[in-house]
UniProtKB/TrEMBL annotation:
UniProt EC number: 6.3.2.1
Pathway: Cofactor biosynthesis; (R)-pantothenate biosynthesis; (R)-pantothenate from (R)-pantoate and beta-alanine: step 1/1
Organism annotation: Sulfobacillus thermotolerans
Protein name: Pantothenate synthetase
Enzyme class, broadest EC rank: ligase
Record's keyword terms, sorted: ATP-binding, Cytoplasm, Ligase, Nucleotide-binding, Pantothenate biosynthesis
Lineage, broadest ranks: Bacteria, Bacillati, Bacillota, Clostridia, Eubacteriales
PANTHER family given in the database record: CYTIDYLATE KINASE/PANTOATE-BETA-ALANINE LIGASE, PANTOATE--BETA-ALANINE LIGASE
Reaction it catalyzes: (R)-pantoate + beta-alanine + ATP = (R)-pantothenate + AMP + diphosphate + H(+)
Remarks, miscellaneous: The reaction proceeds by a bi uni uni bi ping pong mechanism.
Residues that, per the record, bind ATP: 33-40, 151-154, 180, 188-191
SUPFAM superfamilies for this protein: Nucleotidylyl transferase (SSF52374)
Catalytic residue list: H40
Family: Belongs to the pantothenate synthetase family.
Length: 292
């Protein structure tokens, strides 16, 4: 199969997966909500580098949007997405409708990890990660991938999905792919489309703040409050009020006051114009982040 193939139904995808299963090859899943950019394509490339078959899902999941969030205006650019994916022949693109994924209406079954979802983004977006976990669990069940590829930019999501897969015994290796950035340092995001010229001038300060804190860490600083202050001060100079700044354990998302050998994540979120943007950097001591 040399061209990109679109599949719209669960039944057709399961039939395809059964056919693929007759051959000794690894299957990768790259879950997305569409509006693809080079960050997504980095996930697809990483998946093809490690697997013999790649399935990209494009589904704007209503379960992970709050009542006053941007579900209705979230960019939907399927034709452009398919054109971008044509650079990776053999890719299967799963594009189910809401009715296909939730045939009886909103799911009564919710997958939740309260110890990890009630902080950071979850504190400000109630129900968001429950929606993410539920739809990813459904995709794991439907597709039965050997590996699933997620961007490090969504660091909290990555930790939560990794924990969910372990707790529910999904035989899926969760692979983290480094954040792709603009030359300015701004992390690529589908929501960057909401930014106007003034926003695009200010938004790179998010990563600049994280980078300055990382520099302090690399110079030997291990006190969490000091690193958080570095980020806060850079943002204040840019007149940016963060939604949150957090220093947490890379795997458990528990707050960290003093960095030891375990890897930690310094993360933030802020509203820049009409876009809610997130970013993070991983700070590692002697122990490197595990990607089970």
């Amino acid at each position: 199969m040399n061209q990109v193939r679109q599949i719209k139904t669960v039944a057709e995808l399961r039939a395809f997966r059964q056919e693929v299963g007759r051959h000794p090859q690894r299957v990768a899943l790259v879950p997305t909500m569409g509006a693809l950019h080079q960050g997504h394509l980095a996930l697809v490339k990483a998946a093809w580098d490690r697997c013999e078959q790649v399935i990209v899902s494009i589904f704007v999941n209503p379960m992970q949007f709050g009542p006053h969030e941007d579900y209705g205006r979230y960019p939907r650019t399927l034709d452009h997405d398919m054109e971008l994916l044509s650079a990776y022949p053999g890719t299967v693109v799963f594009t189910p409708s809401v009715e296909e994924m939730y045939p009886t209406g909103p799911s009564w079954t919710i997958v939740s990890i309260p110890r990890m979802t009630g902080t950071m983004c979850g504190l400000h977006r109630p129900g968001h990660f429950e929606g993410v976990c539920t739809v990813v669990a459904k995709l794991f069940n439907i597709i039965q991938p050997d590996m699933a590829f997620f961007g490090q930019k969504d660091g909290q999501q990555l930790a939560i999905i990794r924990k969910m897969a372990a707790d529910l015994n999904f035989p899926v290796e969760i692979v983290a792919v480094p954040t792709v950035r603009e030359p300015s340092g701004l992390a690529l995001s589908s929501r960057n489309q909401y930014l106007d010229s003034e926003d695009l001038r200010r938004a790179p300060r998010l990563y600049q703040a994280l980078r300055q804190a990382r520099d302090r860490f690399e110079q030997g600083e291990r006190t969490g409050s000091v690193l958080l202050d570095v980020v806060h001060n850079v943002l204040a100079d840019a007149d940016i009020t963060p939604e949150y700044i957090a220093l947490v354990d890379y795997h458990t998302l528990e707050p960290v006051e003093q960095i030891t050998d375990r890897p930690v994540m310094l993360a933030l979120a802020a509203q820049i114009g009409k876009a809610r943007l997130i970013d993070n950097v991983v700070l590692t001591g002697s122990e490197k982040p595990r990607h089970p």
